Amino acid sequence: MEPKRQIVFIMTDTTRWDMVGCYGYPDMKTPELDKLAAEGVRYDKAYSCQPVCGPARSAIFTGRFPHSNGSFTNCVPLWAGVKTIGEYLQPKGISSAYIGKWHLDGGDYFGNGVCPAGYDKDYWYDMRCYLEELSEEDRRKSRKESSSLENGGIDASFTFAHRIADRAINFLERDKDKDFFLVVSMDEPHQPYLCPEPYASMYEGYELPITPSYFDTLEDKPELERLWAGDNLKEDKSKLKIKPQLFLGCNSFADHEIGRVIDKVREVAPDAMIIYTSDHGEALGAHSLSLKGPSVYEEIAHIPMIIKGGAYMKTPVGKVYEHVTSHIDLVPTFLDYFGIKVPGELHGVSMRPIIENPESNVLHDTVFTEFHRYEQDHDGFGGLQFMRAAISDNAKLAIHLMDKDELFDSKNDPYELKNHIDDPEYASIRDSLHEKLLDMMNKTRDPFRGYQWRCRSWNKDKYSPEWECDGYTRQKVTEPGELQELDYDTGMPITEFVRYKKKYKKPAGTV
């Protein structure tokens, strides 16, 4: 009998790449993820498509960049007609369950408690579902950081992560003999950092190493970063101590709960593919910044990604992929695993070559991230901040549409202290990344594209504004069985989705 096609996709919220022990940080206690990496492939340069919760997820689960799927800021839903992975899989008879944080329904932080199309209603469980299980007193307790340490702390069973893991284990037992796609989406280690002992005290007194990035003055950087840093720029960095006890403790607790799920996978679905990642990082004071936002800094945009192969896409054991990777390729990879054709409207490609043979193949030389605003409901966090960025193995270019652009030499300046955007010695690297970025914006039909992204202060002698921009019409690629889009000029079905705009002279005698 052929093995079933099964994927378990696990994600956490706000886990930096350097918060996982196997990435070279033994102080981080994540034995379950370390074990998973030893069984598969660790991706050392994986980046979020937009480092804030909702938009990051929108790219992960639609395979389209936030600018193209509608959920380009927190609390804004996906556009009508944009499918998530469950909507591709469920009609094919694949049991699809989403358990945990969703953040794509346009509701508040917790969600609306309603199962979206494509997923098993019996297992739908977002954060509103969790809160509705609690008394009013316990709801308030669940939102307080002090709850993990006060009055005897909390039990694991009180947490969102534990209840998610319980449901995932139940699903695995029920559907172990079926083709399935299971999402396990934890809010942890995001604030309020709820975790039981021994995790709540595990990092008591521990100080994060103070790297050169903490001493960044943000001179020659975008104004938005200096505003973001605020009074943190005035701190005496020689006295700085970063002690994120509960944040790191909750991270290790999340690892424990992940281990419970993976143990059940090993028991009942040993041929399943397991994928782990996080949505974004957290500055934790680096560059005098906090949280996440319009930035390509390593602490914010760089995330962990680990894949253990399954029966239909095997991985070697304990290998490392050293080139840039992106969340945008996850949906194509899921579809490839289930033997489903990847729709042309998706922006990524299957990771199969670098899953099955990570040491011999290179999937991308450049990946992309972006930003629009932190959240529709918040007036703060900088408001509107348009950013598009291109990231290669050795350099990063960030275009801040309304501010100063950035170019970092990732190889020689790993702490990203020096902005080389105006440095003539880096002009060829900058210009190459810029062209790739513009090309991506065109190919993905970025609705915010225009000459402003091309014409920058550092290339004013090369480009000038043009009303026609690139001069092309780029219509949505439609698949067989979908409503066919029509050509504006002929009213007939499109023969070229991308075509140069034709200029017609008005017929004689018309006004």
TrEMBL record:
PROSITE patterns: SULFATASE_1. Pfam families: Sulfatase. The keyword DNA-binding does not apply. One of its GO terms (cellular component) is cytoplasm. One of its GO terms (molecular function) is transferase activity. Residues 6-340 form the Sulfatase N-terminal domain. Keywords: Hydrolase, Metal-binding, Transferase. This is Sulfatase-like hydrolase/transferase. The keyword Cell inner membrane does not apply. PANTHER family: IDURONATE 2-SULFATASE. Belongs to the sulfatase family.
